[in-house]
Structure formats: C-alpha cells, structure tokens
C-alpha cells in the first residue's frame, strides 16, 4: 500500500540492512600487506533488499581500492535481524549496520532504547574519505538533527541518513502542459488554480487515505515555521500545535481538503484507496500526496492520454515562502559494542563520496547529498528533482512516550481529516484536539 509496505517495491525505497560478521560473503580472498601493517577487518551487516545483491560488493571493492588498509567482510540476509540478534547477545557485533527503522522486528529501535548505538556525531565533521569536503557539507539541508538521527534529543547523532525517497504532491505534468497552467509553489497560487480547475470540472486535491498525510502535513509545518517547528512538534513541546506557525499549517491543509474531489472520503480506506489514486490518472483531481512507490503501484492502471508522472513539494504558506520536502529514510549505524569504531566512521564517510553515490545510483539508491539527482536513472530524476527545488529535506517521527490510555497522536492528527474534508469538523476544533493530545503525550515522553 505505502511506505513500509512499499519499501521493497519499485526499487525506490528497498530497505537495506545489516550483516553479521562471520557469514560466507567476503570481498577478497587474502588481504594484502600494507605500509601501515596488517589490514583491519571491518564487519558490515546489510539487509538483502530490492537494490539487488551486487550493490554492496561493488561499493566494498571501490572502498578497498581507495583504502588498502581495510578489508570489509559483508554478510547479507533477507531476515538479517534473525541472524544478528543471537550473535549480538553472544557479544559478536558487526562494526557497521545498514538496517532501517520501522521494520517489524525493530532491532535498531530496541538498541536505541538500550542506549546501545555509538555516538557518531564526529562523522559529520570528518572529510569524506578521498575528498576535500566534510560529510556535513555534502548533505542536503535539514537531514540531520531529526528525532531519528538524534533519538535522545541530546544534540548528538546516532544514526546516519543513507538512502531516501522523497514525498510530495504528485500530478500529471501532461495535463498542466496541455492547459498551460503553472504548477503552484504557494498557497495563494493553489487557491487561484483551484478556481480555474473547478471551472473545468476538475478538483484540486485528493488523498489515498488520511494516513498518507503523515508525510505531507509535516512538510507544511516546516514550510510554516521552519525545521525547528517541525522538530518541536515531533517532540510534543507544550503549546507547539497551538502556535502561530502550526495554525498556518492547519489552515493550509484545511484549505486544500476543502477542495477535495467529492468521492475521496468514501474511498479513503485500505480497500479502495487506489480509486483515489486513479483520480489523478483520470484527470479528475490535480494533486495527491504520496511517495515515489506510487509509480510502481499504479504502473498497470489506465490513464489519460499524455499522462506524465511528476511531483511538486508541499506549497509555501505565503508567496515566496520556504518549502521543504518530507522524505522516508534508511539509516546506517554503528553498534556501541563495535570493535572498530574509527574505521567504521571512515567507511561511513566514504559512503557520501561522489564515487559511492555513482555506484548506489546505478542500483536506484539515492543518498541525501547534493547533486545526487543527476546520477540517478532518467525515470527517477523526474521525481527526485523536487529535492533540488526546495529549501531542505526533513525526516523524523514522533518521539517515543510511555503509553497513555486512550491517546493516539496519529489517529487524532490524521484520522480526523476525513471529517474536516466532509465539513463535519472545523479546522479549529481539529487543531485544538491535536494540541490536547500533544500535551498528554509530552508529559509521558520517555527520558
């Protein structure tokens, strides 16, 4: 359907992961001697995923050629957690792990709770291995400092952002070309377009289900008050959802859903959500929040003549305002118990090099670094180019809290949007209920 369910499809957001140390896959037969002495062996754990089996061996070969003092051992598995967990319990840890958050077995989440990930903050001040730029200088604006890279909100980074898939407003570029319409970049232009489209029997907006707005609304928050507002909202800061910036974001989404295609609410459920996605292909709605997986999901669906997939960022609140893109990320990390942390961070720095980016892009894996779009296959460039047009990329989730009976932020924030769209609930009442829930959860944040 979407996000985690779709990560392995379309080779756009396939989850890459860990690899324990003493499995069969190695990249060289015998390490050569180097001037600095015996080679260090770096253990990399990486999930076998939709990026294919050749990507990591190719990357490792490039790194070993660049750094002959290190040999990288790779183990991959489709069920990597099952292989890593017993080894870790026995004290056998890999040095580097590529395994995303959000998987059912939640291994990295468990390690975060146990304070078992290494602090890799200094990685971002290191120069990329083989280049003259720092890692932080290559990263896209906004990808560090989220509730994911900084799970304890202590100003330190424990996970490094790796591959990503941007989300935004999907539209039919062919229709806009046919009509001679400009793609709106802000809410005033959205309102003007809504009237033009309405005159031709086309609705401005649709959404598959309200759950799909969990990447779109955060972008509106950042557009309204910057990355700081978004991060504070994810951390349940008191009063944040009642703030002026948040009010602008709520009103913006309220304006969009006021112009929703009439059948949207009835079909916004797990059984019929593709009918809402079809509205875009049939030119019955102009914009739909979604992620890059939708292209593969709807590849066999009928469509209007001249249909061309394109993606726009969430609109700025005011004319000329800032725009951010929310992206789903995969992260790479170092266990606190890793033997070779220094070498692990050197290897991680190489992963942000132009040489590594070219290898990853060849396998449809995009990193959050400047200029990566041009390295991707042509069919992906049309979707990822949105990142080059905005002020930054955001990522992160609501921080963990102790259970609060009868309280669910996602249901409160997103589950009520159908009622707002149908006119049964006002934007103000919706916003008020979100702030009330946020305060309850803020009091229960796990320290």
Could you describe the 3D structure shown?
The chain has 447 residues and is an alpha/beta fold. The protein has 2 domains: 40-165 and 329-380, D-Maltodextrin-Binding Protein, domain 2; 167-326 and 397-443, D-Maltodextrin-Binding Protein, domain 2, CATH 3.40.190. The protein has 18 helices and 9 strands. The protein has helices at residues 3-6, 55-66, 80-89, 107-113, 135-138, 173-179, 187-199, 213-234, 244-258, 264-267, 273-281, 293-297, 341-350, 354-362, 378-384, 409-413, 417-421, 427-442; strands at residues 40-46, 70-75, 96-98, 160-172, 203-205, 285-291, 309-312, 324-333, 392-394. Strands 1, 2, 3, 4, 5, 6, 7, 8 and 9 form a 9-stranded mixed beta sheet that branches. β1, α2 (55-66) and β2 form a beta-alpha-beta unit. The protein is globular and about 75 Å long. It starts with a helix and ends in a 5-residue tail after the last helix.
């Amino acid at each position: 359907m979407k996000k985690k369910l779709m990560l392995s499809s379309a080779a756009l957001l396939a989850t890459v992961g860990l690899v324990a140390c003493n499995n069969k896959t190695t990249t060289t037969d015998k390490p050569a001697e180097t001037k600095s002495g015996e080679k260090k062996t770096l253990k990399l754990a990486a999930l076998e995923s939709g990026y294919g089996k050749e990507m990591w061996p190719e990357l490792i070969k490039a790194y070993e050629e660049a750094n002959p003092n290190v040999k990288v051992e790779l183990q991959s598995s489709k069920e990597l957690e099952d292989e890593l967990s017993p080894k870790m319990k026995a004290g056998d840890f890999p040095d580097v792990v590529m395994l995303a958050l959000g998987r059912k077995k939640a291994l990295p989440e468990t390690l975060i709770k146990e304070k078992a990930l290494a602090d890799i903050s200094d990685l971002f001040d290191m120069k990329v291995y083989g280049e003259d730029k720092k890692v932080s200088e290559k990263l896209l604006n906004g990808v560090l400092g989220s509730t994911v890279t900084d799970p304890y909100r202590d100003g330190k980074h424990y996970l490094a952002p790796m591959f990503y898939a941007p989300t935004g407003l999907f539209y039919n570029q062919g229709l806009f070309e046919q009509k001679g319409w400009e793609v709106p970049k802000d809410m005033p232009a959205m309102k003007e377009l809504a009237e033009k489209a309405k005159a031709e029997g086309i609705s401005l907006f649709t959404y598959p289900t309200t759950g799909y707005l969990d990447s779109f609304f955060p972008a509106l928050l950042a557009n309204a008050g910057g990355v700081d507002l978004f991060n504070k909202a994810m951390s349940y800061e008191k009063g944040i959802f009642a703030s002026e910036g948040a009010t602008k974001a709520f009103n913006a989404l309220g304006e969009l859903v006021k112009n929703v295609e009439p059948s949207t609410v009835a079909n916004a459920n797990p059984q019929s959500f593709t009918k809402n996605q079809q509205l875009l292909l049939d030119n019955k709605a102009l914009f739909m929040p979604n992620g890059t997986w939708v292209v593969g999901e709807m590849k066999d669906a009928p469509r209007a003549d001249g249909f061309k997939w394109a993606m726009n960022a969430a609109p700025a609140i005011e004319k000329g305002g800032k725009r951010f893109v929310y992206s789903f990320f995969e992260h790479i990390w170092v266990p606190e118990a890793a033997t070779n942390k220094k070498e692990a961070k050197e290897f991680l720095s190489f992963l942000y090099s132009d040489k590594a980016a070219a290898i990853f892009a060849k396998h449809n894996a995009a990193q959050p670094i400047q200029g990566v779009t041009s390295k991707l296959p042509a069919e992906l460039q049309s979707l990822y180019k949105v990142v080059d047009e905005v002020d930054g990329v955001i990522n992160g989730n609501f921080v963990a809290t102790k259970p609060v009976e009868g309280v669910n932020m996602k249901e409160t924030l997103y589950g009520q949007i159908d009622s707002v769209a149908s006119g049964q609930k006002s934007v103000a009442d919706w916003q008020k209920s979100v702030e009330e829930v946020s305060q309850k959860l803020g009091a229960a944040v796990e320290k």
